[in-house]
Amino acid sequence: MDIEKSILGAIILESNSFYEVQSLLFADLFQNEKNRKVMQGIESLVAKSMKVDLVSLYSELKNEIDPTYLSSMTNAVASSANLETHVRILQQKWIEN
User: Fold this and answer.
1) Which of 94, 69, 85, 74 is closest to 15 using CA atoms?
2) Region of residue 62 (phi > 0: left; psi between -120 and 50: alpha; otherwise: beta)
3) Which SS3 state, helix, strand or coil, does residue 73 take?
4) Handedness of CA 40, 36, 83, 22 (dihedral sign)
5) Which of 15, 19, 39, 91 falls between 20 and 30 A from 45, CA-CA?
6) Which residues lie closer than 8 Å to 40 by C-beta, 6 or more apart?
7) Distance (Å, rounded) from C-alpha 33 to C-alpha 46?
8) 12-48, pLDDT tens digit by residue?
9) b/e string for 16-50 if b means 16 or more Cβ within 10 A?
């Protein structure tokens, strides 16, 4: 499973979960360019005090990301229960590269 998509999918499904990991998570952690753009979109929405969901995110990204790609992020995620652990794994991968 792609940990980047898993993290983003959890945030899209449960937007309040972003605040639990906000201090740990930033766009440059994401190696995949599409995922980095999605994270930047999430950061932008949060900065505007807007709720993160598929429609808002797609609108924020101004059609830069295919809606099917965004939807696929949420398909394999049941909840944000292990979000902090997943973010820490992503951080470790970023440090190693």
Assistant:
1) 74
2) left
3) helix
4) negative
5) 91
6) 27
7) 20
8) 999 899 999 999 999 999 999 999 999 999 999 999 9
9) ebbeebeeebeeebbeeebbbbbbbbbbbbbeeee
